[in-house]
Specification:
heterodimer, A: 633 residues, mainly alpha, 2 strands, B: 109 residues, Helix Hairpins
Chain lengths: 633, 109
C-alpha cells in the first residue's frame, strides 16, 4: 500500500520524461548519432505511457479516485497561494493515456517519416516539448498550471507548423495558428482572472467546492464560463476561430496527427469537461456551446466535401468532429465528449498517419485528384485507412460508432431538430470520408510518374496498432443496449459531473441506430457510385462549378471574410496612423522641438562671450530687476 | 556692550543708511567699471562692509545682538573669500602677466 502511494506521488515523472527528452535532444545538437533523436524521443514518451498505464492500474487497485501531488509552492503573495500541483483523477488519467499512447505511436511513426529530413533532431525535440506541454495541461491541479501547458502547446504548434520554415506560406500558416490562438487565449486568461477574483483561488477542487454555493445562472459564473469558452474555441478550432487548423497542415504530417489527435485541439474539450461544475451552473453558456458545436460540425463537414488536398479533408473532418464534441459538452454529456476525444484520437491519428504514408509513397503529392489505385500498392495503409474511415463514419462495431451514436442520442433526447442536424453532419462526414477513400485507393492510378510503394515498418506498425484501437476502442464504453454497462462513462463520473438526463428506451435507441445505419449505407453506396463506378471522376479545378459548389470549394470564403472584416480595416488604420499621424504630425512635432531648441541655443550662445565685466553687469542688472520686481508686487 | 550701543545711537539711523548706501553704490560701481581684478576684489569688500555697518546699526537700534553676530560670520566668510580670490589673482598674474579681467575672456571655451 505504501508502495502504491509512493508510486502515485511520483506521477510528476510522467511529464518529466518528455521534458528530459526535449532537453537531451535539443541540447545535444548535431552531435547526436543518426536516428538517435527518434529513438530517444519515442522512448521518453513510451516511458511516460508505461508509467501512466501502471498508474492507472495502481489507482484502480488501491481504490483511490484522485490524488493531488504538490511539487512546490509556486506563487505566494499575501493570502494568494498557488501551488505547482498535479491532479491525477480519472479525467486526467484518461487524457494522459490518450496523449502518451497515441503520442508514442506518432513518435515511432515519425522515425520512419522524418528519416530524410536534415532537421530531424529539432523535430523530435519539439515533438517532445509538445507532449510535455500537453501533459502539463491535463495534469495541472489549478488553472494556472493548466495555462502554462495551454501556452506551451500554442508555442509548440507554432514551431512545428512552421517546421519547414523555408517556405513562406508555411511560416504564414504558423503565424496564423499562433495569432488566432492568442485571440482565444486572451479570453481564457481573462476568464482565469475573473475566476480568481470571484473565488480567490484557482485550484480546481477549491473552485468547484465554492461554486456549489452559487445558484444556477449566476451572471458572474456565466461570464467566467463564456470567457473560458473563448479560449476553448480558439484552441479547439471552433467557429469563429477555426481557420487556423486547416492551415496548420503546413507542418509535417506526424505533427498534424499529434495536433489533431493527441494534443492541442483536445485541450479545449478537456478544459470544459474539467470545469463541468461551472458549466452546469451556466445554462446560457451551454446553449452557446451547442450552437457553436453544431454549426462547426455542419459547416466544416460541408467544406470537407469539396477539398482536394488529402490533409485538408482530414483537417476539416477534425474541425467537424470537434464540433460534435462541443455539441456533447453543450448537452452536459461531458464524459461522452471525452469518450469521443478518445476514439477520435485513435481514428484521426490513424487517418493522418495513413495520409502521411500515402504522401510519403507519392513523393510529396497531396492532391487526391492525382492519386487513385493505391489499394494494391499499399495494402497495409489501405486496410488501416479503411478501418479508420469506417470508424469515423460511425459504422458499427467500429469505435466511432459508439461515441458518435452516444452524442446523437443525447442530441435526440434534447431536441429532435438538433438530432436531425447532427445526423446530417454525420452523413456528410461519411460521404466525404468515402470520397477520400475511393479517390485515393480505388480506380486507376492517375499520376503516371510516381511509383508508390508500401511504407517502412516504423510507419506501418503504428498504423496497425492504431487500426486495432480504432476497431475495438469503442468497446471501452458499450451502452446497455448491447449488454454493456458504459464503463468509460462511469469511470469518468467521479471527475466530471454530467447533467442528468432521462434514459431513453431501448426501442427508441434501436430505431435511431437503424435509421442512421440505413442512411449511412445509402450515403456509402452513393459515394461508391459517384467515385468508383463512374470513371470520369477527377475533375480539373478549372472546370466551372455551380455557385454552391464554388462557395464550398472556397471554404465559405471565411478567410476572405476575416480578411475584409479585420485585416483590411486594421491594415487601413495602421496605414492611416503611419502616414497621416506618425509621418505627418508626430514626427515633425518631435523634430520641431529639437530644431527649436537648437535655434534658440545659437541665439543665446552669443551672450556667452567670456567678457567678465559684461557678466558682472548682467548679474547686477538682474539683481536690480529682481528687487524692482519684488518692490512692485 | 551697553556703552557701545548707546554710542552708536548718538548718530541718527538715517545717517547710517545713507552712508552704507553710498559705500555700497561706490563698491558696485567699482565692480562694474574697474578692469583691475584687485580693485574689483577690494570693491567687493567695500560692499560687504557697507552691509556690515548697516547690520550693526540696526542691531544697536533694535537692541538685538543677532545682527552683530551675523556681522562676525560675514567677516569670516569674507576672509575666506579673499583668500580664494587673491590666490586666483596670483595664478592669473603668473599665467597671463596681467590683472586685467578682459583678458579672462579666453576662458569662455
Amino acid at each position: 500500500m505504501v508502495g502504491a502511494i509512493t508510486f502515485i506521488n511520483l506521477a510528476w515523472l510522467v511529464p518529466v520524461f518528455p521534458l528530459l527528452g526535449f532537453l537531451i535532444i535539443g541540447f545535444s545538437g548535431k552531435g547526436l548519432m543518426h536516428n538517435m533523436a527518434g529513438i530517444i524521443g519515442s522512448s521518453t514518451i513510451l516511458l511516460s505511457f508505461l508509467y501512466t498505464a501502471t498508474l492507472f492500474f495502481v489507482m484502480k487497485s488501491s481504490g483511490q479516485d484522485s490524488a493531488t501531488i504538490t511539487l512546490f509552492n509556486w506563487i505566494a503573495i499575501g493570502s494568494m497561494n498557488i501551488p505547482f500541483a498535479f491532479l491525477i483523477d480519472h479525467l486526467s488519467l484518461t487524457m494522459m493515456l490518450v496523449i502518451t499512447g497515441v503520442g508514442t505511436l506518432i513518435h515511432i511513426y515519425s522515425i520512419g517519416y522524418m528519416h530524410h529530413d536534415e532537421r530531424v533532431n529539432t523535430f523530435f525535440a519539439q515533438m517532445n516539448l509538445f507532449t510535455f506541454s500537453m501533459l502539463l495541461l491535463v495534469m495541472g491541479a489549478n488553472y494556472l498550471v493548466l495555462f502554462i501547458g495551454w501556452e506551451g502547446v500554442g508555442l509548440c504548434s507554432y514551431l512545428l507548423i512552421g517546421f519547414w520554415f523555408k517556405n513562406p506560406a508555411y511560416n504564414y500558416a504558423a503565424r496564423k495558428a499562433f495569432i488566432i490562438n492568442r485571440i482565444g487565449d486572451l479570453g481564457f486568461i481573462l476568464g482565469i482572472i475573473l475566476l480568481f477574483f470571484t473565488f480567490k483561488t484557482v485550484t480546481f477542487s477549491e473552485v468547484f467546492a465554492q461554486a456549489a454555493s452559487f445558484p444556477t445562472g449566476t451572471t458572474v459564473i456565466t461570464l467566467i464560463t463564456i470567457l473560458l469558452l473563448v479560449g476553448a474555441v480558439g484552441k479547439s478550432a471552433q467557429i469563429p476561430l477555426f481557420t487556423w487548423l486547416p492551415d496548420a497542415m503546413a507542418g509535417p504530417t506526424p505533427v498534424s496527427a499529434l495536433i489533431h489527435a493527441a494534443t492541442m485541439v483536445t485541450a479545449g474539450i478537456y478544459m470544459i469537461a474539467r470545469s463541468s461544475i461551472l458549466y452546469n451552473l451556466a445554462p446560457i453558456t451551454l446553449n452557446i456551446i451547442i450552437g457553436i458545436g453544431l454549426a462547426t460540425a455542419l459547416m466544416a463537414a460541408i467544406i470537407g466535401l469539396k477539398q482536394n488536398d488529402i490533409k485538408k479533408v482530414l483537417a476539416y473532418s477534425t474541425v467537424s468532429q470537434l464540433g460534435y464534441m462541443f455539441l456533447a459538452l453543450g448537452l452536459g454529456a461531458y464524459s461522452t465528449a471525452v469518450f469521443h476525444v478518445t476514439t477520435h484520437a485513435f481514428f484521426k491519428a490513424l487517418l493522418f498517419l495513413g495520409a502521411g504514408s500515402v504522401i510519403h509513397a507519392m513523393g510529396g503529392e497531396q492532391d487526391i485528384m492525382k492519386m487513385g489505385g493505391l489499394k494494391s500498392k499499399m495494402p497495409i495503409t489501405y486496410w488501416t485507412f479503411l478501418a479508420a474511415t469506417l470508424a469515423i463514419s460511425g459504422i458499427p462495431p467500429f469505435s466511432g460508432f459508439f461515441s458518435k451514436d452516444l452524442i446523437l442520442n443525447k442530441a435526440f433526447e434534447h431536441n429532435i431538430i438538433l438530432y436531425i442536424l447532427a445526423l446530417g453532419g454525420a452523413l456528410i462526414t461519411c460521404f466525404y470520408m468515402f470520397r477520400l477513400l475511393y479517390l485515393v485507393f480505388f480506380g486507376e492510378q492517375r499520376l503516371t510518374n510516381a511509383h508508390p510503394h508500401e511504407s517502412p515498418q516504423a510507419m506501418t506498425i503504428p498504423l496497425i496498432v492504431l487500426a486495432v484501437l480504432s476497431v475495438f476502442g469503442g468497446f471501452l464504453n458499450v451502452p446497455s443496449l448491447f449488454g454493456g454497462n458504459s464503463n468509460f462513462g462511469s469511470f469518468l463520473q467521479s471527475a466530471t459531473t454530467s447533467l442528468s438526463m432521462e434514459e431513453m428506451s431501448h426501442s427508441t435507441e434501436t430505431i435511431l441506430i437503424l435509421v442512421s445505419l440505413a442512411l449511412l449505407g445509402l450515403v456509402i453506396y452513393f459515394a461508391y457510385s459517384t467515385f468508383v463506378t463512374r470513371s470520369s471522376v477527377p475533375k480539373a479545378d478549372s472546370e466551372p462549378m455551380s455557385f454552391f459548389g464554388k462557395v464550398v470549394y472556397n471554404k465559405f470564403y471565411i478567410d476572405e471574410i476575416y480578411d475584409a472584416l479585420f485585416e483590411k480595416p486594421l491594415g487601413f488604420l495602421s496605414d492611416f496612423f503611419f502616414n497621416k499621424v506618425e509621418n505627418a504630425v508626430l514626427d515633425p512635432a518631435v523634430d520641431g522641438i529639437g530644431t527649436l531648441t537648437a535655434r534658440f541655443g545659437t541665439l543665446v550662445r552669443k551672450l556667452q562671450q567670456g567678457n567678465m565685466s559684461f557678466y558682472l553687469f548682467a548679474m547686477v542688472a538682474g539683481i536690480l530687476l529682481f528687487i524692482i520686481f519684488i518692490l512692485i508686487i | 556692550m551697553k556703552e557701545i550701543s548707546s554710542a552708536i545711537q548718538i548718530i541718527p539711523l538715517d545717517y547710517y543708511i545713507v552712508l552704507s548706501g553710498t559705500l555700497f553704490s561706490i563698491g558696485l560701481m567699482g565692480v562694474l567699471f574697474r578692469r583691475n581684478i584687485i580693485a574689483i576684489l577690494m570693491c567687493i569688500e567695500l560692499m560687504f562692509n557697507s552691509v556690515n555697518l548697516l547690520l550693526t546699526a540696526f542691531s544697536a537700534y533694535h537692541s538685538d545682538p543677532a545682527g552683530q553676530v551675523f556681522v562676525f560670520f560675514i567677516m569670516i566668510v569674507a576672509a575666506a573669500e579673499v583668500a580664494v580670490g587673491l590666490s586666483i589673482v596670483v595664478m592669473m598674474k603668473r599665467n597671463v602677466e596681467s590683472v586685467d579681467i578682459n583678458l579672462l575672456n579666453r576662458l569662455k571655451w
